[in-house]
Amino acid sequence: MGYQEQITLINGERDLPYQRPPLSKAFLTQNLSPDDILLRPDRFFADANVRLLSGKRCVKIDRRERAVELEDSRRLRYDSLVLAIGARARSLPKSFGAIPHGVVNLRTLDEARFVRDALRSPKQVVIVGGGLIGLEMASTLSSIGCHVSLVEFHGRLMARSCSPGIAEAIEQLHRTAGVNVYLEAGTAEIHAMAGRLHGVTLTNGLRVETDICLFATGASPNIDLAHDAGLACGNGIIVDPFMRTLDPDILAVGDCTTFPSVQLGVPVRLECIQNAHGQAATAAATLVGAPAPYIVPPVFWSNQRLCKFQRVGFLDGVDLTVRREGEAGAFSLWHFSERRLRAVESLNSVHDQALARQLLVKQAPVTPEQVADPQYELRAALLN
Ligand SMILES: Cc1cc2nc3c(=O)[nH]c(=O)nc-3n(C[C@H](O)[C@H](O)[C@H](O)COP(=O)(O)OP(=O)(O)OC[C@H]3O[C@@H](n4cnc5c(N)ncnc54)[C@H](O)[C@@H]3O)c2cc1C
């Protein structure tokens, strides 16, 4: 098997393709160089017969001619086109007017370089957004001596990605580590002089002097290219379980897609590595004529210095949660819907989480009573 034809990879960024997860973690602590986070070394692309075009974005899809156009007006013909164009950080509120130097998003390597350079010596930092990325930055930056104020609009942290039980435990860890967490708060005013940030006033009236304010308020899928080409889009480019758009010659994968979830029975869009990898493998199988639907339950993780959070499955429709204790404060929450296992979240329980994933993939009949019993060997449920 394998794909013998020419593959062209249009990479809109000037850097070689890199991993994003380290950008909010180890990369900020100066321990890593951009080369350390590459997805593949430079020579890989030539060896794999992949023509890599970096630094020029694709600006148009001509479906009739089966061609794409780049920023520099080059046109490239395709037999099959895969859109893996990801998501972009949600733009900063227009009400703030011109965005001063020092107010940044963190989505790209260039933005991470800026943040890292700005934080060479310990500083006051304001982070807006208490989701996974905001919290990862908070734990990384507090570990290098920054004074971190984290501002979250909702009444709890990680409202999109975990249950309240996990959010409470994570909030406590951050507060104990010295992060000032402000819930039900936002940014009321951004203070700048000569185009440079020097302070932020929060909606709770608190003013924080800072020359860096990091916005981690979520991402929106890049759909413009697909939408302009007449492909169906909603909260993402709409694909079937084989990653095909409504045009059989165009597939889409990763953060930019909305796909039919077998587990939820509704279309969903996910922003996580496992989903991007899984969908890419599915699209590759479709392209080489060995299609198999994408059905694995989603897996999320977040490394936040003091804890490793992991989740497998969806939390929607959960009606019963069982807590299972691990060692040294580790625990996992097992979520059921009508007595069927639906999702498992854990803090520092890597072993339980690996088992949970296998149980969910296999749809093994593990019961709430078994999970609640500390003597019960979860592995046994896999044999049923
Ligand atoms: C700071 C940060 C930390 C994260 N941490 C985790 C984590 O711990 N665990 C986890 O599971 N997930 C994490 N994620 C999410 C994860 O990185 C994404 O789910 C994953 O990168 C999605 O891959 P993708 O290929 O779909 O999109 P992307 O990684 O966004 O890649 C899309 C690429 O397409 C390019 N592009 C867009 N439009 C065009 C165009 N018109 N022409 C050419 N190129 C274009 C973009 O520049 C980009 O390089 C994190 C994300 C960020 C930003």
From TrEMBL:
Domain FAD/NAD(P)-binding: 5-280
Annotated ranges, domain Reductase C-terminal: 300-381
Any Pfam family the entry gives: Pyr_redox_2
Gene3D superfamilies linked: 3.30.390.30, FAD/NAD(P)-binding domain
Coiled coil region boundaries: none
Cofactor(s) needed by this chain: FAD
Keywords for this protein: FAD, Flavoprotein, Oxidoreductase, Plasmid
Protein name per Swiss-Prot or TrEMBL: FAD-dependent oxidoreductase
